[in-house]
From TrEMBL, chain A:
Pfam families: ABC_tran (PF00005), OB_MalK (PF17912). This is Sn-glycerol-3-phosphate ABC transporter ATP-binding protein UgpC. It is a peripheral membrane protein. NCBIfam families: PRK11650.1. Belongs to the ABC transporter superfamily. It is found in: Cell inner membrane. One of its GO terms (cellular component) is ATP-binding cassette (ABC) transporter complex, substrate-binding subunit-containing. The keyword Protein biosynthesis does not apply. It comes from Ferranicluibacter rubi. Coiled coil: none annotated. GO terms for molecular function: ABC-type transporter activity; ATP binding; ATP hydrolysis activity. The gene is ugpC. Its main location: membrane.
TrEMBL record, chain B:
It is found in: Cell membrane. GO terms for cellular component: plasma membrane. Residues 85-299 form the ABC transmembrane type-1 domain. It comes from Ferranicluibacter rubi. Belongs to the binding-protein-dependent transport system permease family. It comes from the Bacteria. The chain crosses the membrane at residues 26-48, 89-111, 123-143, 230-252, 273-302. This is Sugar ABC transporter permease. Pfam families: BPD_transp_1. Keywords: Cell membrane, Membrane, Transmembrane, Transmembrane helix, Transport. It is a multi-pass membrane protein.
Length: 387, 309
């Protein structure tokens, strides 16, 4: 086991494309860290750098106290689980798991003991003499796990290992993987584009974003799943974590005697905001207000902050998601406007989670209020959270 | 309730059409079966019959006398049979092995994305596209003791060349013939092996690297087993072609000096198309067919024993 530190790591391809830049974080010994982000955010590249399969152009990669930035994958003692499992198709399950051990010139009896032990743990004993082609997706996935754990490596790297499984199996394997990690206590770096996977599995989650030049950093925030949800550092993280995504509304802030008033741009709706010292500095300016879909409450028309017709409602059984439009300019989380203002035209579609019993009939207006304490505020110029 | 009545279309269909429909698979495969029978089975059977007759075309157009197994006895005891068989086996085994090893090395180099590889790939296919006869002539000039390029190069780097030239000396002639064949056919192995190596998923190689396998182990235990089927088949094809080597020998040495480069293929040509000894050459053909089939059958048995198809 080992700690793994990325120190201002960067990768630029010969054609000038910046895949990764300025990423710094440390995975503690035994920790399970998930890299999550949309495609092109550099998460797989970072993982492959940790494996030694991809070389970094700048920064350093430290395992424990050893600089492994330019060490060959053979000499890193790291195990990786690939998206397509990358099992050796011509070898049996036993041989697949034994291969890594054979490379270390381990005695045959010792290899046999370790492989059987791992097979037992993963419920693969019955399949040891089969070839990968004769296994189901879930079983192949477990063989890939087995191949990694028999070696007792310093760290596990997992590249979207569950993405080829069907939904039900994915949930099951998610649990098994997490359990296995707790049992073995091996440092793990896990890549996924699925935020549910990230939130449920990671001790900490790193949210990454594609970058266009080497001055930015892919790493937006690294924190525990709950902190990412409760206190997103910026618009990107706020918009990425949470499903459905957080709603963003442009408002004008003005101080009004005891507190602050936010006026929704376009509709003119006024919201009295609880006093917040950080927010006071933004009085008289435009800011972005973030509302999680689960923070809406159905109320009487008199109390309503939003009272719009609902063109789309998605009934999920336990909850219903209702979508409605307000006449306010939309917010693009990837494109913060430098001027801090924008035109008041446009249509902004919001989504709220409500109890199914409160679902309005088609074309009927739905009066909604918001839990004011749980609003999020962002500076439109930088995209950073105001707190 | 509604009753649905089905009208069987069979009754209305013409007899001719249903015949075509029923026998379509056989009709489609028939041309190739007929071609095989006409071009392979018939000549082989014809040769089998001829092999039991004394029949020399210089004497007359019809078989002259039934001689039983005499032709076979004569073929096996001929002055050149031993030499031709040894040379043929040497050429086939050594040639196939060297061409495979060299071709594999080239294929592995091609896999590395070095600058200029596209051009190399395109050039590589060239020797294979030239007719063996032309390659023969090409190498005759290259080997020429009076001013051949290869002779000159070897002499200038200090390797002694026999005065009669590489093709004129019994000790080097067979190697010289083999070299021409290697020059022509190594690229064939290189291209085919390169193509099949491309189909080995990169992730599997990466997994092996992370499993701490050396480049050599990855080649022997991952890459080669994964391209085994292709390799088995091209080795078999090339072995059979080499076993029938005739045209390069004809152009380069005519089997000489002495019997040093004589192959079974060349002996067949000499008996059949120079001496017109149809009975004898038929017996020799059958001996050759038997030998090559026994070798290939053994090879196929051992090579495919552990393969699931």
């Amino acid at each position: 086991m080992a700690s793994l530190a990325f120190d201002r790591v960067g990768k630029t391809y010969p054609d000038g494309t910046v895949a990764v830049s300025n990423v710094s974080f440390t995975i503690e010994n035994g920790e399970f860290v998930v890299l999550v982000g949309p495609s092109g955010c550099g998460k797989s590249t970072l993982l492959r750098m940790a494996a030694g399969l991809e070389m970094l152009n700048s920064g350093r990669l430290i395992m424990d106290d050893r600089d492994v930035s330019h060490v060959e994958p053979q000499d890193r003692d790291i195990a990786m689980i690939f998206q397509n499992y990358a099992l050796y198709p011509h070898m049996t399950v036993y041989e697949n798991m034994a291969f890594g051990l054979q490379q270390r010139k381990m005695p045959k009896a010792e290899i046999e003991r370790l492989v059987r032990e791992a097979a037992e743990m993963l419920d693969l004993t019955r399949y040891l003499q089969r070839k990968p082609g004769a296994l189901s997706g879930g079983q192949r996935q477990r063989v890939a796990m087995g191949r990694a754990i028999v070696r007792h490596p310093l760290a596990f790297l997992m590249d979207e290992p569950l993405s080829n499984l069907d939904a039900k199996l994915r949930v099951q394997m998610r649990g098994e993987l997490k359990l296995l990690n707790e049992r073995l206590g091996v440092t793990t770096l896990y890549v996924t584009h699925d935020q549910v996977e990230a939130m449920t599995m990671g001790d900490r989650v790193a949210v990454l974003k594609p970058v266009s030049d080497a001055t930015e950093s892919n790493l937006q925030q690294i924190d525990t799943p709950q902190m990412l949800y409760d206190r997103p550092a910026n618009l990107f993280v706020a918009g990425f974590i949470g499903s459905p995504a957080m709603n963003f509304v442009r408002v004008d802030l003005s101080s009004s005697g005891a507190g602050l008033t936010a006026t929704v741009i376009g509709t003119g709706t006024q919201i009295t905001v609880p006093l917040n010292t950080a927010l006071l500095n933004f009085a008289g300016r435009q800011v972005i207000m973030g509302i999680r879909p689960e923070m809406f409450r159905v109320c009487t028309p008199e109390e309503a902050i939003f009272n719009e017709a609902v063109p789309v409602a998605e009934a999920l059984g336990a909850d219903t998601f209702v979508f409605f439009d307000i006449a306010s300019p939309p917010v693009d989380v990837n494109d913060t406007d430098e001027a801090g203002t924008s035109s008041s035209k446009g249509k902004n579609r919001l989504v709220a989670r409500i109890p199914p019993a409160k679902t309005p009939r088609p074309r009927e207006r739905l009066p909604l209020t918001v839990e004011l304490e749980s609003l999020h505020w962002f500076d439109p110029a930088t995209g950073l959270a105001i707190r | 309730m509604t009753t649905i009545t089905a009208h069987t279309p069979v009754a209305t269909m013409t007899g001719r059409r249903s015949f075509v429909r029923r026998n379509l698979p056989y009709l489609l495969i028939a041309p190739s079966v007929i071609m095989l029978l006409v071009l392979i089975a018939y000549p082989l059977l014809f040769a089998l019959r001829s092999s039991f007759y004394f029949w020399n075309l210089q004497i007359g157009p019809e078989p002259q006398a039934f001689v039983g197994f005499d032709n076979y006895v004569q073929a096996l005891n001929a002055f050149d049979f031993q030499a031709a068989l040894t040379n043929t086996l040497l050429l086939s085994f050594v040639g196939t092995a060297l061409e495979f090893a060299l071709g594999l090395s080239i294929a592995l180099i091609l896999l590395r994305a070095l600058p200029g590889m596209n051009v190399v790939r395109a050039l590589l296919i060239l020797p294979t596209t030239i007719a063996p006869i032309v390659v023969g002539f090409l190498f005759r000039y290259l080997y020429d003791p009076g001013g051949g390029l290869l002779t000159w190069v070897l002499t200038s780097i200090g390797i002694p060349i026999p005065a009669v030239g590489l093709l004129g000396s019994p000790s080097t002639a067979l190697a010289a013939v083999l070299f021409a064949d290697i020059w022509q056919w190594t690229p064939f192995f290189a291209i085919v092996l390169y193509a099949s190596l491309l189909s080995v998923p990169e992730e599997i190689i990466e997994a092996a690297r992370l499993d701490r396998a050396s480049a050599w182990t990855i080649l022997m235990r991952i890459k080669l087993p994964l391209i085994k089927r292709t390799a088995i088949i091209i080795v078999m094809l090339r072995f059979m072609q080499l076993f029938n080597t005739f045209d390069t020998v004809l152009v380069l040495t005519r089997g000489g000096p002495g019997t040093s480069t004589r192959t079974l293929g060349y002996s067949l040509y000499e008996q059949g198309l120079i001496n017109f000894n149809i009975g004898l050459v038929s017996a020799m053909t059958w001996i050759t067919v038997l030998i090559v089939n026994i070798i290939v059958a053994l090879y196929v048995f051992f090579a495919f024993r552990n393969e699931e198809w």
